[in-house]
Amino acid sequence: MTRYSDYDPFAWAYNKHWGHRFSEQVLPILEKLMLQHLPEKARILDLCCGTGQLARTLIARGYQVTGLDGSEEMVRLAGENAPAGEFIVDDARLFKLPGVYHGVVSTFDSLNHVMSLEELTSVFRNVYVALRDEGFFVFDLNMEEGFKSRWRGSFGIVEDDHVCVVRASYHPQEDIGQNDITIFRFEDGQWQRSDLTLVQKCYSEEEVRSALQVVGLTQIHAYDAQQDLELPGGVGRTFFASRKPAGANGG
Fold first, then answer.
1. Do residues 51 and 15 lie in contact, with contact meaning Cβ atoms separated by under 8 Å?
2. If I label 32, which of 22, 91, 134, 190 is the partner at 20 to 30 A Cα–Cα?
């Protein structure tokens, strides 16, 4: 497996334009599905933490937050955005952490970037190990409806010192969404160009439920982001919530 270093050149753009926006939107959902059930100063693992805006918000609420991401540049920016957090460069498919976390979250369709069901199951297995007994695991995924309705066409962001153009497409025969991104940044007196392609895998609800069950997670629920959770622009996004059973760690 290769680390997610392809995301390094995208990190600054994500930090500037996307990270804070979804973190603000997702907090009420996390409160409903998980946070209200956690003790004060609970330990939370923010898996695929990006540039740390959600971690910063959780820390401000008194939680002890560890962020983990495969992009070294994402983690560097996360440390700047949330200096009170602990941040680790590691791969969600491979990480090993002790079972001390009251909750694990992974937001903004981060786990769609895991490109096979076998690898997604490995992520879930690692989460299971990291959770305390009766710990919560909450994450969201883009589902087929979301890819078909939102992953098409292009858009651009133009500012004085940078331009970012994103061309989105969905390939249903492969269940893969693709973002082709071109970035121009004005640095050191000249324009620099970067081109990158980020891909996501579309999973069915049945596949996700089965993978969660295989690793031992229970109390699995799926929530439509728009209909059940009133998330603006949440068409085709599903939040999954599950728990590690009591006594799993022998306690």
1. yes
2. 91
